Amino acid sequence: MIEPRTSTGGPADRSAPDVADGVVLVPGETCWRIERAARYAVFVDAADYFAVLKKAVLAAQRRVLFIGWDFDPRIRLDPRSPGRGRDDRLGRVLETAVRDNPQLEIGVLQWGMGAVESLRRGVLPAALVMRRAPERLEFFGDHHHPVGAAHHQKIVVIDDCLAFAGGIDVTADRWDTSEHLDRHPLRHRPTSRRSTGPWHDVTTLVSGPAARALGDLARERWESGTGSRLEPVEEVEPCWPDGVEPLLGDVDVAISRTRPEHGGTELVHEIELLWLAAIAAAREVVYIENQYFANRRIAEAIADRLGEDDGPEFIVVNPESAVGWLEEKAMGTARARLLDVVRKADVHGRFRIYVPVTDGGRPVYVHAKVLVLDDRLLRIGSANLNNRSMGLDSECDLTIEVREEDARRAELTEAVLGMRHRLLGEHLGVEPSAVAAAVREHDGSLIRAVESLRNRTGRTLQPFEPPRQHVVDRALAETELLDAERTPDRWGRIKGSFRRRR
């Protein structure tokens, strides 16, 4: 196994989080704040999310803030609805909202290099499309970050009383339904009728104090990126979109961030510490959906737990390959190398990595960033399993944790497991109840349950095997030239704290 090493970047190491009671979420360590959500919902895949977002924007009273990695005003938000297609385009929806409500202001803050990224993907930059936007509809590119970094958060805050946060960018190539058809007539770029590939993604919706906290974060980003200070929205009635069924009500939600050291601000790597704490705390199974598997520290932490006689199972759902040659060179080669580390440590057969495929065998691109820990923690956000999401890019994840003393423990546990089974059911082409039944049938083993439900053909999860790596690929992965570590290593202390608890 590769020997662990200490990072040369970031601040000096501190003590491990206080986990005497076994709690994973610790403000100031693994999260920024824990706030109550009056209602909490999850959107799996972008079709329903975009449709609800449209309604929420049109119903906004005072302010809408978009904080994103990418943004395309030409996309349709609800192509399944009747009416003229041009009226459904994001840019037209925003213009209609400010025209119909003289009190409404809408701000869009996109990563400053997003224009270059858009051109690389063959998409017209949003700044050009929105150059004639009406007053009270502002667009800015955010360049306030270290060289080589990206603003990767995906947040929409409406009137400080409603907030979306997760992995779905409001841009092209994201729209899809959970059926993930091989070809969908509505799944295409704004300027083409050619069908784009199936895309899997997840985001959340919160109201109440949790939404207001995300409003604080969004306004902080706005001021950092534009130099303009926004005051909180006051005296707005509680809001929730019609027709959206919350997963939970009156629940605590933790907000975890990555913020790089830059311009006088200190490094914040709550998301990395949350990952490590969750892996250390795991008792039975860790379920992961992510765009990448390219973070050495997380992989080594998983390998460490796999070596234990009674350690947990790990299931990872990844895309078959990254988008673009450079991304695949950086992330694909790192994944191949780290999978070798993990599989060598997996002496008890408790690790699996899968790729979801359509009925026709076409790989589904996994862009979701989800972590389910046992039956007691659900994390959904923007952070990838790579080094840059832990210390270089700006990120935002939301987490619910079930505590042993909670009077609603059974209800919260059911919601956490229900989301895990909902996601696996989508990938396996079965109902969530079938996943739950298979887990019971196999005495709690999620790996054996998934293996019993996998199909040889059609919609299913296929085991992933990395392609053969060439000498240059291995060298890139070894040097981490394209995705370097930037945070202090705290795995040993975190693991020790949770080992004592277990």
Task: Provide a brief overview of the structure.
This protein has helices at 46-58, 90-100, 114-120, 126-129, 209-226, 270-281, 296-306, 325-345, 388-391, 409-428, 432-441, 446-453, 471-479, 491-501; strands at 33-44, 63-68, 105-111, 137-142, 155-158, 162-166, 199-200, 202-207, 248-259, 268-269, 285-289, 313-317, 351-357, 365-366, 370-373, 377-381, 395-401, 460-463.
Tags for this model:
repeat, 20% strand, 16-stranded mixed β-sheet, Endonuclease, Chain A, Phospholipase D-like domain-containing protein, disordered N terminus, 502 residues, two-stranded parallel ribbon, globular, 2 domains, alpha+beta, lipid metabolism
Give a structural overview.
The chain is an alpha+beta fold and 502 residues long. Helix content is 32%, strand content 20%. Strand 15 and strand 16 (377-381) form a beta hairpin. The chain has 2 domains: 33-250, Endonuclease Chain A (Endonuclease, Chain A), CATH 3.30.870.10; 254-501, Endonuclease Chain A (Endonuclease, Chain A).
Q: What's the number of structural domains? A: 2
Rg, rounded, reads 22 Å
How can the largest sheet be summarized?
A: 16 strands, mixed
CATH class of the largest domain: Alpha Beta
Q: Write down the overall mean pLDDT.
A: 90
Structural class: alpha+beta
Q: β content, as a range?
A: 15-25%
Strand elements, count: 18
How far do the termini sit from each other? 25 Å
Shape: globular
Could you name the CATH topology of the largest domain?
A: Endonuclease, Chain A
List segments where confidence is low: pLDDT < 50 over at least 5 consecutive residues: 1-16
Number of helices: 14
Portion of residues within helices:
25-40%
- CATH level 4 superfamily of the largest domain: Endonuclease Chain A
Pfam family, one: PLDc_2
Domain PLD phosphodiesterase: 147-174, 362-389
Organism: Blastococcus goldschmidtiae
Protein name: Phospholipase D-like domain-containing protein
